[in-house]
Write a structure and sequence with these properties.
281 residues; alpha/beta; TIM Barrel; eight-stranded parallel β-sheet
């Protein structure tokens, strides 16, 4: 079983228009080729001809049991009616999580204006995924996307489930501490490369993730994700295998943690509710 918690239906080649349906077909083809069973599709904080709205993605993926939608929310532009629409999607399980994009937008996750979003997530018991680390757009402002910013949110909202996207890369050591300290915080390994891993960089990133697991303990906090189509699924699956983890820990990362966190009914046995206590350092 494989669950990719971080994919998009955005068209990143903005020299041409690609319908959302075509992007969805390409995602399904990549999933089938790489034997990926389920995928989370994260919508953008921007809505334009290249980045479909949450409503459009919900419509496009309706009836697909193995595609699940995470609603991207613009901190700068969200309106009450946007949250009401998302609340309806959450109620019907047409959306299974929320996503914020600090760094791409200039705000800290602890900004008081975010609390209504966190309250919505807690009401429906879904995770909030938060962009951290490097930004695909060079105009992003990195001080807003540092993973340490998530600690305040985790401490102030102990019932809120949070996902540090991209393991805070390049601030992975700081992400280690966040997931070690806060039992309500998870992290995904998506977006570490553009395209495929190169040999030297792969060795570096393998070491970083191994150290994270050594520091933070059994990886019940770590989620498999790619950031497709920016990153290729094939290279990511190979990356996870090369971590050399025991089969039970590899399963936690590849699907069990995600199935539990997003409450997916996938017809497979899932670990007990809640994360195990982190091992001592």
């Amino acid at each position: 079983m494989i669950i990719d918690v971080h994919t998009h239906l955005n068209n990143y080649d903005e020299t041409r228009i690609v319908p959302v349906g075509k992007c969805l077909e390409q995602l399904q083809e990549s999933m089938a080729y790489n034997k990926v069973d389920h995928a989370m599709v994260l919508t953008s904080y921007i809505v334009n001809e290249h980045r479909p709205s949450t409503a459009d993605v919900v419509t496009a993926t309706g009836g697909l049991d193995n595609i699940h939608v995470v609603a991207g929310i613009s901190f700068l532009n969200y309106r009450e009616r946007d949250l009401r629409e998302i609340a309806d999607f959450l109620k019907d399980r047409r959306v299974v999580g929320l996503k914020l994009y600090p760094g791409y937008e200039p705000f800290y996750p602890s900004d008081k204006r975010c609390q209504v979003i966190y309250d919505l997530a807690m009401e429906f018991d879904v995770p909030v995924m938060i962009h951290t680390g490097d930004t695909f757009n060079p105009k992003g402002k990195l001080r807003y996307s540092h993973p340490l910013n998530i600690d305040d949110v985790a401490v102030d909202n102990p019932e809120l489930k949070l996902v540090v996207c991209h393991i805070g890369n390049p601030w992975i050591r700081d992400c280690m501490e966040i997931v070690y300290k806060n039992k309500n915080v998870y992290a995904d390994i998506s977006g570490l490369v553009l395209g495929d891993f190169k040999s030297q960089f792969k060795k570096f990133m393998l070491q970083q993730v191994k150290e994270m697991i050594l520091y933070a303990g059994e990886p019940r906090y770590l989620l498999y994700g790619t950031d497709w189509p920016i990153c290729r699924m094939r290279t990511y699956l190979k990356f996870v295998k090369e971590l050399g983890l025991p089969p039970e820990n590899q399963e936690l990362i590849l699907w069990k943690n995600a199935a539990q966190l997003f409450k997916l009914d996938i017809g497979e046995p899932v670990n007990e509710t809640g994360k195990a206590t982190h091992a001592a350092r």
